[in-house]
């Protein structure tokens, strides 16, 4: 089974849209973007489009790359105090002269719809989330809506980032999977990966997971996205993930493609968090 992330994301957004229609107070997401990073601009446009579709109000604060850290923090504080704003998102990465952690910590935990604030991260780790981190939560939805059992399985997560690897391990534990988190210092990583019923690759290296690292019949979730040197007939650069898809697809029971797998659900789960920001 090729897991269709676009179709599942569309289901989630449709559910969010129906919930928003019933809300007296509509969610409002304010996005702060600093600088002119092309990839960040695309991500922000995708979030705006999802907000427009689901009926969530949105406001983008585009600041020049020269903006000082204090000015960014002042804007965050202003949005924290604005009653009309229910969700605040600072698009990462920020310019090097701005401390990302300082900005994340300045966002009110009640408005932190990205679920990056230490308080919200902690709540996820103890199984009492206010919000769920968007990419890991999207992966859980992909598995559930594809009727893939997590309880009692061995899940191996390759990667321990604060954005994906660590919170994904917490969410898989909450689904009663047994979880092993691997990283660059893990001994015998390939041997551990071969044991996985569910193998999640969030390592940030193109085609890092090869066929010899995957058990026959396993479920493979590919979080990575990288440009390749190959172009499509339409002139677009082909993308690949952290998994060697072409050499693995025939060996597994289910796998996410890149693009069209995990990515679309990330934005859909952000919309769910925006609804949660007004529904306590």
Low-confidence stretches: none
| Shape field | globular
Average pLDDT figure: 96
Beta-sheet strand percentage? 15-25%
CATH superfamily of the largest domain: NAD(P)-binding Rossmann-like Domain
Cα radius of gyration in angstroms: 19 Å
Count of separate structural domains: 2
Structural class: alpha/beta
The CATH architecture classification of the largest domain is 3-Layer(aba) Sandwich
Q: Between the first and last Cα atoms, what is the distance in angstroms?
A: 37 Å
Number of helices: 10
The biggest sheet amounts to: 5 strands, parallel
Describe it:
The chain is an alpha/beta fold. It has two domains: 24-108, Rossmann fold (3-Layer(aba) Sandwich); 134-262, 3-Layer(aba) Sandwich (Rossmann fold), CATH 3.40.50.720. Helices cover 39% and strands 17% of the residues. It contains ten helices and ten strands. The chain has helices spanning 5-22, 38-54, 69-81, 100-106, 118-125, 134-145, 165-174, 189-193, 245-248, 262-276, and strands spanning 28-34, 57-63, 87-90, 154-158, 178-182, 198-201, 219-222, 226-231, 237-240, 254-255. The strands form three sheets. Strands 5-4-6-7-10 form a five-stranded parallel beta sheet. Strands 2-1-3 form a three-stranded parallel beta sheet, with helices on both faces. Strands 8-9 form a two-stranded antiparallel sheet. The mean pLDDT is 96.
């Amino acid at each position: 089974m090729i897991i269709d992330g676009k179709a599942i994301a569309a289901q989630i957004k449709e559910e969010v849209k129906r919930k928003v229609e019933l809300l007296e107070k509509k969610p409002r997401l304010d996005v702060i973007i600093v600088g002119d990073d092309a990839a960040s601009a695309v991500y922000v446009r995708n979030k705006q489009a999802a907000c427009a579709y689901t009926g969530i109000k949105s406001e983008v604060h585009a600041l020049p790359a020269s903006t000082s850290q204090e000015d960014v923090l002042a804007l965050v504080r202003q949005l924290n105090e604005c009653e009309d704003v229910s969700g605040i998102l600072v698009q990462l990465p920020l310019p090097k002269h701005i401390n990302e952690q300082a900005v994340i910590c300045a966002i009110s935990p009640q408005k932190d719809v990205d679920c990056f604030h230490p308080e919200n991260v902690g709540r996820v780790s103890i199984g009492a989330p206010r919000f769920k981190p968007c990419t890991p939560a999207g992966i859980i939805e992909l598995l559930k809506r594809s009727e893939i059992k997590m309880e009692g399985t061995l899940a191996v997560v390759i990667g321990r980032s604060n954005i994906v690897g660590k919170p994904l391990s917490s969410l898989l534990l909450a689904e009663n999977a047994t979880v092993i988190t691997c990283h660059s210092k893990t001994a015998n990583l390939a041997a551990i990966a071969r044991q996985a019923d569910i193998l999640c690759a969030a390592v940030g290296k193109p085609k890092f997971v090869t066929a010899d690292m995957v058990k026959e019949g396993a479920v493979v979730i590919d979080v990575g996205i990288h440009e390749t040197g190959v172009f499509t007939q339409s002139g677009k650069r082909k993308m690949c993930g952290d998994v060697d898809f072409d050499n693995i697809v025939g060996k597994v029971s289910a796998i996410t493609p890149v693009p069209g797998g995990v990515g679309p659900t990330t934005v859909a789960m952000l919309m769910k968090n925006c609804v949660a920001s007004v529904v306590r």
